[in-house]
Amino acid sequence: MIERSLFREDHDIWRATVRRFVEEEIVPFHSQWEHDGIVPRELWLKAGEMGLLCCTVPEEYGGLGLDYLFDVVVFEELWRVGASGPGFLIHTDLVATYIRSFGTEEQKRHWLPKMVRGEAIGSLGMTEPHAGSDLKAVRTQAIRDGNDFVVNGQKVFISNGQLCDVVVLATKTDSSAGASGITLFLVESNRPGFARGRNLEKLGMKAQDTSELYFENVRVPSSNMLGGEGQGFGLMMTKLPQERLAQAIRSATVTETVIEWTVDYTAERKAFGQTIADFQNTQFVLADLKARATMARVFTDKCIDLFQRGKLDPVDAAMAKLVTSELHCEAVDKCLQLFGGWGYMWEYPISRAYADARVVKIAGGSVEVMKMIIAREMFKGRLTPRAKRD
Ligand SMILES: Cc1cc2nc3c(=O)[nH]c(=O)nc-3n(C[C@H](O)[C@H](O)[C@H](O)COP(=O)(O)OP(=O)(O)OC[C@H]3O[C@@H](n4cnc5c(N)ncnc54)[C@H](O)[C@@H]3O)c2cc1C
């Protein structure tokens, strides 16, 4: 078996700490949070106290200044038990990263320490009812008015939407300019005119709050701009490989986990005088998944390594997300099948994993968009420009 070689001893010690936290503070309560449709704020505070949020934020901004693998350990430990409720990944890997990378000194000093402590929860507001995959089509407007911008518009499917204190918001400051008219702002949820819509009912990830957000004449000072005016699209593009890598880490981890659950279950469960594992079909299904899960893990770990060295390109990240998310969905389906009727019962983690999985082929860039990115690179300069096709 190929051993993972990314982690050092300090990462392993950290993993043990995170695992204990997850087992004690999350696993026993997750079912209740699924009923509630949200996790409590206290969990964020406890996670902050333990150092689980935004591990890489430098000490000068209140963080621990650790390497990316410490964040990876947190994500993996959550996915390992199917804890899809806490929206730590969006908060840590996206919102805090945007602020660190593009924020002014003042923005960093204001938000990062609170985000590390779990006192401020972050959301990423890109998707709109009419603009998801095609991000440059966002319509939320930010119109300059003196030293302020006035924001009007609507976002949808926003993770941490009910809990968030700050949103990295994609707006149009020039609605005639397409991608070059997009500007990012940090918008606080206590600004007049900001409203949360309902907590959306989802197929899976039921303990995570996902919401519509409304902006009606929300006045934000120009000092809340993240990056320069008209630079939003370019900034978002630079962070997409990291987002896709995080999705690949999720899918690689869940795939391995559901295979383990299914090996354990089928080795015990009996039918026709033998265990389910004794059927050659069971062995073949699981062996096939195991082989591909190992490939997925090795490739994902390679991408983590490249990312740490600043060398992960968008095509490799797209390949990682494409292959791992498709495998993830196939694995939960095939494993659930081997659980029979029990696999369909919510009390069995495989059932939740099945429901949670479906989003991975859609959010953070659909599998079709991943294929488009890969194909563009393959046919570089050799495809007919859109204008000529139309
Ligand atoms: C649970 C959940 C959480 C989310 N969290 C967030 C969040 O925190 N912040 C945020 O901003 N967004 C979030 N999203 C939104 C997510 O990123 C979008 O759903 C995703 O980008 C797809 O956009 P869309 O839903 O508008 O689908 P559309 O863009 O309407 O696409 C629909 C389908 O059309 C096909 N398609 C689209 N483009 C192409 C193409 N170029 N070629 C071929 N086929 C194509 C694909 O099959 C795609 O699934 C979340 C979504 C979900 C479900």
How would you explain this protein's 3D organization?
This protein is α+β, with helices and mostly antiparallel strands and 390 residues long. It has helices at 9-26, 30-36, 41-50, 68-80, 88-102, 105-117, 232-268, 280-308, 314-339, 349-357, 367-378, 386-389, and strands at 122-125, 141-145, 148-159, 166-172, 182-188, 194-199, 210-221, 225-226, 270-271, 274-275. It has a 4-stranded mixed sheet with strand order 1-4-5-8, with helices on one face. A 4-stranded antiparallel sheet has the order 2-3-7-6, with no helix packed on it. Helix 4 (68-80) crosses helix 7 (232-268), helix 8 (280-308) packs antiparallel against helix 9 (314-339) and helix 9 runs antiparallel to helix 11 (367-378). The protein starts with 8 loop residues before the first helix and ends with a helix. The chain binds flavin-adenine dinucleotide. The site of flavin-adenine dinucleotide has 22 residues, from strand 1, strand 3 and helix 11. Flavin-adenine dinucleotide (FAD) is lined by residues 90, 123-127, 132-133, 157-159, 202, 205, 210, 359, 362-364, 366, 368-369, 372.
Give the secondary structure arrangement, pairings included.
Blueprint: H1 9-26, H2 30-36, H3 41-50, H4 68-80, H5 88-102, H6 105-117, E1 122-125, E2 141-145, E3 148-159, E4 166-172, E5 182-188, E6 194-199, E7 210-221, E8 225-226, H7 232-268, E9 270-271, E10 274-275, H8 280-308, H9 314-339, H10 349-357, H11 367-378, H12 386-389
Parallel strand pairs: 1-4
Antiparallel strand pairs: 2-3, 3-7, 4-5, 5-8, 6-7, 9-10
Helix pairs in contact: 1-4, 4-7, 5-6, 5-7, 7-8, 7-9, 8-9, 9-10, 9-11
Flavin-adenine dinucleotide binds at residues 90, 123-127, 132-133, 157-159, 202, 205, 210, 359, 362-364, 366, 368-369, 372.
